[in-house]
Write the C-alpha cells for this entry.
Amino acid sequence: MFRRCAKFPIPDRTIVSAGFQYQTELGGRRTVIAGSINNLFDEKYWDRNTLGEGVNGALGLRVHW
C-alpha cells in the first residue's frame, strides 16, 4: 500500500542575525534610522529548495511628514 520514499536528511543549522532601530528628529521631523545584518557569521546552509545566502544587510531611513 505505502510506497517507500528515499529519505534525504537536511542538517540542522543556526543562523544569527542582528538589527537596530534609532528614533530621532532631523529638521523638526520625527526620523527613524534602522538596519539589519543577516547571517552574521556567514554560515553555509541549504534546505530542500535553496542554498542559503551569505552575509547581507539593509539600512533604511524613514522621515515622518
